[in-house]
């Protein structure tokens, strides 16, 4: 019986660093989450690493949490990459079929994809993904898988997602600093789409909007293939900033209010008080006005910013030419999807049916990750399981570690703290 593989993903976001460990049974095609770690992120702004040491500190804390839960010492992981530097374009490739008999092989498919990949990029940019949209065999269109078909000319239309070489290196270095080898990078919007969208939605046409803290990622599927992707430089942190300014409280308190108000609406407690007052002290907020109107907070501060976010999404869709081609509507995910009124704002601004997407397709510690916040992290694992090019780790006794070491301190933590001590001693 084949041993299950161990897959690991690290989602590096502006608000949090999430690390997941899972066992993957290839025979049953089943992913079982065995370790979850999530900590506030440091050194990350608008999806990009701005301080490698601080980012590495958050990554190591998140990884250690997942390791302790799974009882496994990570040495490899797939990573998310996001930020305003991410861009996309479409590209075509054409090759002649190598077999004189005209049968298309997997090597022909690889060659035509490489041909589509051979595009001129600005300096300091690189390709993150080459995603086939449609193949054509001797002019016959809408071919999904040409392998085994007969023809002499093979064409492919692809969607290329590109990123800044500097940003790529910074992400890789931040993770390498903590002793984890990057297996690959996945655009955070693509990772989120992988875990929350259904096949039916992709076929009919759907817009995935991943509202992060610093950025908002957009992925559009039409007829099962990616037609458009983009990143907007706005996110739920803008809502937090507005609350802080409007209520004259700190950013930490504003974030707390935003989260607790979202939970309150989700549990159906909104509007229970006849006077519509919220006691901020009960939210753990000591500064600013002690009591505020919930309606004023939601309608006057939160929703206007959410309306702006989704108005920008609508403009992006119109500019890309995909507006009106997504009858399945909009799926919003990410931490911003938990903001009170997010789904309503998306529905109103985009004039499309809207739902909040949560991660699907995994078993195990499902309750721990059943939130839009973990959409990209779970998507990393699913993406890894579907892409054999990702090097997977074997689950074996040699890789199992004790959950504690010398009084409960994780091995990686000991090494890190020893390294910090040496740095302080040396001039």
TrEMBL record:
UniProt-listed GO biological process terms: FtsZ-dependent cytokinesis
Classification via InterPro entries: ATPase_NBD, Cell_div_FtsA, FtsA/MreB, SHS2_FtsA
Mode of membrane association: Peripheral membrane protein
Top-level taxonomic group: Bacteria
Job of this protein: Cell division protein that is involved in the assembly of the Z ring. May serve as a membrane anchor for the Z ring.
Record note on quaternary structure: Self-interacts. Interacts with FtsZ.
Name the record gives this protein: Cell division protein FtsA
Organism: Candidatus Azambacteria bacterium GW2011_GWA1_44_9
């Amino acid at each position: 019986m084949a041993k299950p593989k161990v897959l690991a993903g690290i989602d590096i976001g502006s608000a949090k660093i999430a690390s997941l460990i899972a066992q993957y049974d290839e025979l049953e095609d089943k992913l079982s989450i065995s370790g979850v770690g999530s900590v506030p992120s440091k050194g990350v702004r608008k999806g990009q690493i701005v301080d490698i040491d601080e980012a590495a500190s958050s990554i190591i804390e998140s990884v250690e949490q997942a390791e302790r839960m799974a009882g496994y010492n990570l040495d490899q992981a797939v990573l998310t990459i996001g930020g305003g530097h991410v861009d996309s374009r479409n590209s075509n490739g054409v090759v002649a079929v190598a077999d004189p008999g005209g049968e298309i092989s997997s090597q022909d498919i690889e060659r035509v994809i490489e041909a589509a990949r051979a595009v001129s990029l600005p300096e300091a940019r690189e390709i993150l993904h080459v995603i086939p949209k449609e193949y054509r065999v001797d002019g016959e269109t809408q071919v999904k898988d040409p392998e085994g078909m007969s023809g002499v000319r093979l064409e492919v239309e692809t969607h290329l997602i590109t990123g800044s070489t500097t940003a790529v290196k910074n992400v890789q270095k931040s993770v390498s600093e903590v002793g984890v080898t990057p297996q690959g990078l996945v655009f955070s919007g693509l990772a989120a789409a992988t875990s929350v969208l259904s096949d039916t939605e992709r076929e009919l046409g759907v817009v995935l909007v991943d509202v992060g803290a610093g950025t908002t990622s957009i992925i559009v599927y039409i007829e099962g293939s990616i037609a458009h992707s983009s990143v907007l430089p706005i996110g739920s942190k803008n809502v937090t900033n507005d609350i802080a300014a409007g209520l004259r409280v700190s950013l930490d308190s504003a974030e707390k209010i935003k989260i607790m108000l979202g939970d309150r609406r989700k549990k159906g407690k909104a509007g229970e008080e006849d006077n519509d007052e919220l006691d901020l002290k009960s939210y753990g907020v000591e500064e600013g006005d002690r009591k505020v109107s919930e309606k004023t907070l939601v309608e006057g501060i939160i929703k206007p910013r959410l309306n702006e976010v989704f108005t920008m999404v609508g403009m992006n869709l119109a500019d890309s030419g995909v507006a009106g081609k997504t009858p399945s509507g909009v799926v919003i995910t990410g931490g911003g999807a938990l903001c009170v009124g997010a789904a309503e704002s998306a529905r109103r601004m985009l004039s499309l049916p809207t739902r909040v997407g949560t991660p699907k397709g995994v078993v195990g510690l499902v309750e721990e990750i059943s939130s839009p916040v973990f959409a990209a992290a779970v998507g990393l694992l699913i993406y890894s399981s579907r892409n054999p090019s990702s090097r997977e780790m074997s689950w074996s006794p040699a890789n199992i570690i004790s959950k504690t070491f010398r009084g409960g301190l994780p091995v990686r933590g000991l090494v890190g703290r020893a390294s910090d001590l040496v740095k302080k001693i040396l001039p």
